[in-house]
Amino acid sequence: MTRCNIARECLNVIVECLNVLSDCYKNCRTHVSHFNSRFLVGEGPDLRYISRAMVESLKTVLVVDDNRDFADTLAMLVGFYGHKVSVAYDVASGLALAHQLMPDVILHDIGFPRLSGHEAARQLRSDAKFAKTVLVALTGYDSRSDREHSKKAGFDFHLDKPIDLGALTIALGQSRPN
Fold this sequence. Notes:
The protein has helices spanning 3-27, 47-56, 68-80, 91-101, 117-125, 144-153, 165-172, and strands at residues 29-32, 41-43, 60-64, 84-88, 105-109, 134-139, 157-160. The radius of gyration is 16 Å and the shape is globular. Residues 23-51 have low confidence and may be disordered. It contains seven helices and seven strands, in the order αββαβαβαβαβαβα. It starts with a helix and ends in a 6-residue tail after the last helix. The protein is of the alpha/beta class.
């Protein structure tokens, strides 16, 4: 089986998952933790509606995660929505790619062996060029102190793994105020 066939099969699985999740979200209540109350979600979003809204405002997205399988799968999913996606597997490469691409959204893992995702967020926020970039923390830790630590570092969203597709969709659809 060629890589194209494998990728096509993966996309088919993702499409099926999105169809099932869309139906579930349509009739379910979900809670998404965000820092700004205007982004709080009481009713689960209809992913078909939000997906159309996302397509109308396609973005450049950078995924930074040292788990290659997770990073590549997330990039494929985000790219499926039509966004232009790039991937970096370590913080230094992520920072370099961010300066090169000037992405609209950065989906950044927190836990790295050397430089943390929090430090990367602080560096990005200290540069005025990234004032409008939406920073999304991706982590396996979701306590109140973890969310506060992400907020202080400069992240706009804190999403715990496994990533909730509704929360990811909402984060991708946001813009930072001037």
